[in-house]
Amino acid sequence: MKQIYSFIYIVLCLMLFNTSASALDFKFTDLEGEKHSLSDYKGKWVLVNFWATWCPPCRKEIPDLSDFHLETDDAVVIGVNYEPGIKDEKLKKFVDLYLISYPVTRVNEAIIQALGEPRGLPTSILISPEGKIARRVTGMTDGRRINKMIEQYNTKQ
Which of 22, 57, 77, 96 pairs as cysteine with 102 (C-beta 3.0–4.6 A)? Predict the structure, then answer.
């Protein structure tokens, strides 16, 4: 009986190790019709930002996220609109009005499977250059906070 428990323990450890060792990946199509994959950004920090047009904190953080995306060479932002019922035309007008500089996509099952459901909006998930979740933030964030999270992650490594 002891051998069975040892075997199960080893198998579970190997499964956990293999799961944590593999990088996250998901595919999405942005509002311009371009296809992307998270793995396209391997070697860069990726901030996946769940947001909605009706969310005041989401709207407030957009300019800073746009600046961060444009001004940072080793990081990108991906906006994930979390409004299943919004029409394409309305969403595109919103993106243009707010001068969003980063790729925007609608939420899809692949993104949810990879990152999980957000607990609130906005929610940002910082993914390391190796493709692992480094930090999850519910609530507003900005470039200074993102840079601090990156610095903290690098210090731990």
Answer: 77
